[in-house]
Amino acid sequence: MRAKILILGSGLAGTIIANGLCRRLGSELKGGEVAITVLGTTPRHLYQPGLLYIPFGRIREQELYREQKTVLDRRVNFIIDPAKRIDVEANRVETQSGKVLDYDYLVIATGSRLVPESIPGLKEGAHSFYDIEGARKLRAAIDAFDGGRIVVNVNAPHKCPVAPLEMTLMLDEHLNNRGLAGKFEITYTYPIGRLHALEPVATWVTPEFDRRGIRSQTFFNTAAVDPVARTISSEEGDTLPYDLLITIPPHRGAQVIEESGLGKGGWVPTNPKTLLRDGSTNVFVVGDTTNIPISKAGSTAHFQADTIIDNLSLLIQENRWARDYDGKVFCFIETGMNSGTYVWFNYTTPPRPSPPTQMVHWFKLAYNRMYWLSACGLL
């Protein structure tokens, strides 16, 4: 009997898994023993980490996109028809167009979405770089900026956890290079009592901020933004004025997850080692969609995807488990326009940021170019 694999989501994780399974299950696909279907929301694939460079004019928009069909293995049945309802008891998914697809194995890679509207005034009064439209508008705002008060406001939960630090450090250097030294001040807000959720990262960046004169305010959980008065207020009672407000909006999981009753906030309860949905034996969860308390980052999705490829292919071929996910994450951190560092960690090893170097910055730029090899599962 043919094994049907259904992958919900055509972002990095869903794409890597589909391509990896095609390589591992080549003979089974050729013999008709396995079928792989991917449900996507768009015909184009976006390289999301590249959005960080758009506000500084360091990358062209067209470099961030490829047609999804050119990224996926030709043996994958790619359908642009998002999931509307997931029924894990009946092993079936209903799409927005009304189609019903059944499966033997399901991979949920539906990612996360921005919800700036959850905070009054945030959508109207703040800029962001977490989607292409926001990155474009922020580019225009930075180009027009000639001095004043900047607030970089971080809300939780959010993906790309080091990106707010990267934006802050890059913006500081960018404005200084434009001759605006002494004409602006940056205040960075964070919702807990340190500058990053990972304590070693917070310990590293605190003196870096001090050295550059970047101000910070912790325990700042955003309550509202007043776009007319140009102020941002916290639940703790603090109010900051701004001339330019850059925010990382709070995130939620995909709406289909909530509407299907699979997880509060759109995050699916997931076993941190097997990456199976809690209570399931045939539903895998990957990337931003999980509720695992580790960084929601591209590398997280990549390493988890590799684990799922190993396990799912071996389950089909030999009916046995290959290995567990160890919590591995690797993140480059831009520390300016020409320097960078990195962190890697897993469930048992904490991150230890190293001193920034120009070489690490160039490594990150090189990876930006090699991303498509990762999506294709070749890197």
Automatic annotation (TrEMBL):
GO molecular function annotation: oxidoreductase activity
Top-level division of the source organism's lineage: Bacteria
Record Pfam families: Pyr_redox_2
Record-annotated FAD/NAD(P)-binding domain positions: 4-143
Protein name from the UniProt record: Sulfide:quinone oxidoreductase
